[in-house]
Amino acid sequence: MKMVIITTAEEYEKKVLEMLKLVGIDNFSSSQIEGYKNIPTALRDRSWFPSERSGASSSLFFSFTETKKVDHLFELINEINQKIKTKNFIRAVELPIERLFNLEIIGI
Model's pTM, two decimal places? Predict the structure, then answer.
């Protein structure tokens, strides 16, 4: 059992959803997030309550799934990233799961 976490710029969200479906990862969670990179201190400290967002619209996905599905997903992500011309690559990490409490076991 593995946990896979994927982040992507908003423009590649549909591609990630297609890849998840293709590899058979049907159960996952997602969230809209703001991505930041190398924010200069002067800009960050300019205002306590900035009136506009300065981050990039991004998406985060995660799922608990089988190792072989994660392996296939990483292959597809690598193929897509080789075609991306910007530095907004699809990023993913794989985490081993040592224990997982499954509520389905106790009927919840």
Answer: 0.79
